[in-house]
Design brief:
Elements lengths: L27 E3 L5 E3 L23
Antiparallel strand pairs: 1-2
């Protein structure tokens, strides 16, 4: 029996692309596991290695 024109087989011609992650638009992002990540930029050669303040005023979107 000939196949009808325009009818596709179920699932054979459908390709599912892997989900693409968008690049973070700000310093706060979510990684592949769902964990929150924060980008911290420090001055080169700084003596102290600590985050001193994480507020909406400091961490801008």
């Amino acid at each position: 029996m000939p196949k009808k024109a325009g009818v596709m087989n179920k699932g054979k011609n459908q390709s599912k692309e892997p989900e693409r992650l968008l690049p973070p638009l700000g310093p706060v992002a979510v990684d592949l596991k769902g964990c929150v990540t924060i980008a911290i930029h420090a001055k080169p050669g700084s003596k102290q290695n600590a985050a001193t303040d994480v507020t909406a005023k400091v961490v801008r979107w």
